Amino acid sequence: xxxxxxxxxxxxxxxxxxxxxxxxxxxxxxxxxxxxxxxxxxxxxxxxxxxxxxxxxxxxxxxxxxxxxxxxxxxxxxxxxxxxxxxxxxxxxxxxxxxxxxxxxxxxxxxxxxxxx
Length: 117
What we know:
The chain has 117 residues and is mainly α. It contains six helices and two strands, in the order H-E-E-H-H-H-H-H. A two-stranded antiparallel sheet has the order 1-2. A hairpin with a 3-residue loop joins strand 1 and strand 2. The radius of gyration is 14 Å and the shape is globular. Residues 15-29 have low confidence and may be disordered.
C-alpha cells in the first residue's frame, strides 16, 4: 500500500471533521456514528480501490464468520498497526484488479473468536 493511501485511510478513520451529514439523520458528531455506507463512500472518494477492498473484506467476513462487521471494526482493521494484512491485501488486489490474489486473501481471513470457518 502506498504511503498516500495509508495516510488517507488513517485520516478517514480518525477524523471527526470528515463525518458526513444526512438529511434523515442530521449531523453526525464523530466517525463512531458514521453508518457503514457513509464510511465506504468516504473511502471511495479518497481511493476507489480502498472501497472495493473493504467491500470484499466485508463480504468475506460475513460469509466466513456469519456476521456483519461494524463500521468501528472495519476502521480498526484499517488502522491498527499497519492494518489487517487480509484487508490491506484485498485493497492491493483491488487496485491491481487481481481476482486470483483477492481469492487467496479471502481464504486467509480469520474470524475473531472462531479461527477460520
